[in-house]
Amino acid sequence: MTVDPALIRNFSIIAHIDHGKSTLADRILDVTGALTAREQVAQFLDKMEIERERGITVKAQTVRLDYKALNGVTYRLHLIDTPGHVDFHYEVSRSLQACEGALLVVDASQGVEAQTLANVYLAIENNLEVIPVLNKIDLPSADPDRTRREIEDVIGLDCNGIVQASAKTGLGIRDILEEIVARVPAPKGDADAAPRALIFDSWYDSYRGAVIMVRVVDGVLRKGQKVRLMATGRDYELVEMGVFAPHPTPITSLGPGEVGFLVANIKSVVDTKIGDTVTDAVHPATVPLPGFKDVKPMVFAGVFPTDSGQYEDLRDALSKLNMNDASFVFEPDTSEALGFGFRCGFLGLLHMEIIQERLEREYNLDLITTAPSVAFHVYMTDGSMRRIENPAKMPPTQSMDRIEEPIYRVMIHVPSGYVGAVLALCQERRGEQKSLQYASADRVIITYDLPLGEVLFDFHDKLKSVSRGYASMDYELVGYRADDLVKLDMLVNGEPLDALSVIVHREKAYTRGRDLAVKLKDIVPRQQYEVAIQAALGTKVIARTTVRALRKDVTAKCYGGDISRKRKLLEKQKEGKKRMKMVGSVEIPQEAFLAILKLD
Ligand SMILES: Nc1nc2c(ncn2[C@@H]2O[C@H](COP(=O)(O)OP(=O)(O)OP(=O)(O)O)[C@@H](O)[C@H]2O)c(=O)[nH]1
């Protein structure tokens, strides 16, 4: 039985990170009586442990709730939980496409921030009814009037009768639900048309294979039906359907406006592309739902096992993770310095950190990860274009016409007192200013086009430090631009550390080369002989440092002393060695590979 679309309300919660999205979702589950008391303890919607620890939502999860409104009518609400971080921009936009409305949660003690605005723009692009909510009004520092003015001035939303809520104490939650019922439009769709359902999430289940979450737009999907995924053109049989209510509950059909999951013997999530349309295989729809895009990874890094014996384990772990997350890619890679490993591509830095952490924690692997790099568009003298994701694979200079790098439009929110410092930082990172706007008397929105490569190098940390933590940012890809880019190599006793090669702007190559050489000098352990560290552009050495030879045995000072202390020292050395790699005759610790990221 499908539900009368007039009684359905599909909505998401959008917010800047930490403004209380997950907590509010939990309160909504409480009020609709969806969870038992014990379940209420945990944040139900953030399912993975790693997310809970970091306090971020990575994978969208959606629940169906029945809410009896004050008018006595029971409405069916689908709460679509969107990922909160900019790396997952496209997934957020597809989740929003599955809704008619969005709750815009703004922390009343913080006000409007970069991701508040970025998410609102996405919601507006998707024609959603946006309902602003002031959260955390229980905090003494909450300033509802100021925040309200900001929402009106910066976003242009009418804040008359805005709900003041506290997801912590439960204040205002019913008011929010009443607003949803009253203001979010009911879904429109043609029940008799060929079915079209939007895929907005998918994950891997070891028993079922790929599971896809859909929002039906037109027609009806039924258990047993043969369906087609329009982007890939593949057909499958719907063997199982269900909803999260909030626990998985089997169903037999989904009609217009409804949201649920499908299981269809699909082996891998790689085949279930976010934004794709599910239709009937026998009588397919002619036009897919709008907005499908094949997302490409933007950040690349080499991942190598410290112990070469773990290569196969690493491959297994990557394959398993990839079954659940099709947005990262990997392929075998070899490095002279690091041996056999994989080149991985991620949506962004946070995505990279999450995967890295899961590999180390869930799969117990000891890894060395190289400095992240962007994908360059390299135009050759013969007119062809190559996408280069690994600086070590850059073609020889003479065969290249130009190198183009990805440019991000970065939107920064900052109190007016820090504007100068933020502008200086953006200029220093080769930014091009696009606009500077006052959001209110003391808050400014600065927009810059910046090379992604410059954003990767601790831009966010720097931004936080020059603004004492007050600035927030959001970004999106706007295109590629040519610049005077060169490949900088680091050599240890003449042997290239291919894993440390980077593509940098020529003007910055000298400083970066010198800084790196100095830093490496402190990190490369002293050996029995002198070690030369050089930075080079092609064959031209631009900086050099020397690690002097070792004079004493480390244990010598324990001579005559306590034998257990000596053992401890040796053990400590062994521990340190675990993360070492031999380069020619020199041992390089993992730290060296990260040093490049942390240059001051
Ligand atoms: N005092 C107070 N704290 C709140 C309220 N709502 C949320 N918090 C706290 O704010 C922090 C962030 O809340 P979350 O619900 O995790 O925020 P989020 O927006 O889901 O964060 P991300 O998942 O990182 O996007 C947590 O420590 C919450 O306990 C509120 O109404 N009042």
Automatic annotation (TrEMBL):
It is found in: Cell membrane. It is a peripheral membrane protein. PROSITE patterns: G_TR_1, G_TR_2. Coiled coil: none annotated. GO terms for cellular component: plasma membrane. NCBIfam families: lepA (TIGR01393), small_GTP (TIGR00231). Belongs to the TRAFAC class translation factor GTPase superfamily. Classic translation factor GTPase family. LepA subfamily. Belongs to the GTP-binding elongation factor family. LepA subfamily. This is Elongation factor 4. The gene is lepA.
